[in-house]
Amino acid sequence: MSYFVHILLNNVVPLSLLIGLGIVLQRAFQLDIKTLSKLNFYLFSPAIMFQMLYQTELSLKVMSQVLLFFVVFFFALIGVVEIVMRVRGYKGGMRSAMRNSVIFYNSANYAIPLNQLVFVGDPFTLSIQIIIMMMQSLIPNTYGVYSVNAHRQKLKDTMKTILSMPIIYVIPIALFMRGFHIPVPHPIYISIDYIAKGFIATALTTLGVQLGSMKWELKLRDVAISNILRLCVGPLLGFLIVLAFGFQGDMAKALILSCAVPTSLSSVLLAVEFDNEPEFSSQAVFSSTVFSIFTVTFVIYLIQFVG
């Protein structure tokens, strides 16, 4: 019960308040959603990614194990989603929107506090989650951009868009500077810190603005399918892969928990930026965040029996 209340008060309620603020601002001022989307993609996301990778001590052994898990999990999840989409007969932009709502999950501002709550500030499990977060930042800015544009844009044009994404350069730069202990000039680091602190508020407000601009034609069946795949099938696949690889202890628990979090804001930002089913994407993020109160609490209870 304490986990339930803590997740509700420390994750869902603060997220919901910021989303609600975005809805109110949109209703009052008709904000430019495209400008907010670009700020997230080109300013706030790169800043927080650089800061977290630069500050965190990452073991090469742990990184290789986590990356192995992530790659297998990612493709297994895509496989499941593809089967469901074929059965449902999704076409065009809805295919990429559904896929993104399941394979992109909130590994940063939801999963990191959750990890630290469950494992009581353990730096080892935090490093695992940060590696997952790195991949969950890189893939939406590469594969995610490709998937929402593949059905309507030439490959050459899509590649230009991908190469314009700062995050694909920020990740190797941060790892290189961290690995070789290259200091960031203090004035520059202060600026990065200021920008990084604005990421969560800006991203959640953007989601609220998108929700506030919608006609609210609820896509209940599609959203329910997305939520089940993300919140139930995701952690189940994570458990099976952990079992297959023989991971044990806190690593096994942290990896399973990382698969259980709700849909990422990246799916909304991609949908808004490239005008690809933004209403469905926004509803999927919001509803999965709410329902995660129950599913994540259940996963936390179960992982104590793992490893």
Name given to the CATH architecture: Up-down Bundle
Strands, count:
0
Amount of beta strand: under 5%
Helix fraction bin: over 70%
CATH class: Mainly Alpha
Write a short abstract of this structure.
The chain is mainly alpha-helical and 307 residues long. Helices cover 80% and strands 0% of the residues. The protein is globular and about 45 Å long.
Please give a handful of descriptors for the protein shown.
AEC family transporter, mainly alpha, Mem_transp_PIN-like, 307 residues, 15 helices, Na+/H+ antiporter like fold, transmembrane, cell membrane, transmembrane helix, 80% helix
Topology at a glance:
Blueprint: H1 2-29, H2 33-55, H3 60-88, H4 92-103, H5 111-118, H6 123-138, H7 140-149, H8 155-163, H9 167-179, H10 186-197, H11 199-213, H12 220-245, H13 249-258, H14 265-273, H15 278-303
Structural summary, described in words:
- With 307 residues, the protein is mostly helical.
- It has one domain: Na+/H+ antiporter like fold (Up-down Bundle).
- It has 15 helices and no strands.
- Helix 1 packs across helix 11 and helix 3 runs antiparallel to helix 4 (92-103).
- The model has no long low-confidence stretch (mean pLDDT 88).
